[in-house]
Amino acid sequence: MKTERNILIAFILNLSFSLFELIGGILTNSIAILSDSVHDVGDALSIGISYFLEKKSKKKADQKYTYGYGRYSVLGGVITTTILLVGSILVIIGACKRLIHPTEVNYTGMILFAVFGVILNFIAAYVTREGESINQKS
Q1: Of 101, 106, 98, which Cα lies nearest the Cα of 28?
Q2: What's the pLDDT score for residue 137?
Q3: What is the torsional sign of CA 71, 77, 80, 84?
C-alpha cells in the first residue's frame, strides 16, 4: 500500500509540473524547458502505468496466474525505464536541432523553472527512495 501511495504522489507531482513547465517553455521560448516538459509527461505516463501495474501485482494467485501477479510490478519497471530512455533520446534530438537553429530565450524565466524543477524532482525521488518493489525503485 505504501508503494502504491508513493508512486501516486510521484505521478501527481510530475504531471502537475509538466503542465506548468509546458506553459513556462512557451512563455520563455526555451526548447530546454519544452523538452523537459515532454520528458516529464513521459515520466508521469510511466509512473501512472507503474501505479496501475503495482496495484495489479498485489492480486493473489488464481487459476490463470498460479504464481500470482507479481510479474506486473517488474513489467512496470521495464516500461518506465523504456519510456525514460526514449524520452531522453527525443530530448537530445530536439536540443541538437536548436543548436543548429538557435533563437532568443528568457534566461531569468528558465532559471526559475529549472530551480523549481530540481526541487520538485528531489521531492518525488525522496518520496519513492525506499522502494519496496522494482517498479517503485525504477
Answers
A1: 106
A2: 56
A3: negative
Integer CA distances (angstroms), 55 to 70, 88, 100, 106, in order: 10, 27, 45, 42
What confidence score (pLDDT) does residue 132 get?
A: 62
Mean pLDDT, the chain, whole residue set: 78
Per-residue pLDDT tens for 70-121?
777 777 778 778 877 887 788 788 788 888 988 888 888 888 887 887 887 7
Q: Are 102 and 31 in contact (CB under 8 A)?
A: no
55 has pLDDT over 70: yes
Torsion of the alpha carbons at 30, 91, 80 and 5, rounded to the nearest 10: -10
**Per-position DSSP letters for 43-90, written without gaps between them:** HHHHHHHHHHHHHHHTSPP-SS-TT-STHHHHHHHHHHHHHHHHHHHH
Which three cell numbers mark 41?
Answer: 509527461
**In this structure, which amino acid lies at residue 98?**
R
Render 88-138 in DSSP notation, one character per residue. HHHHHHHHHHHHHS-----HHHHHHHHHHHHHHHHHHHHHTSS-SSHHHH-
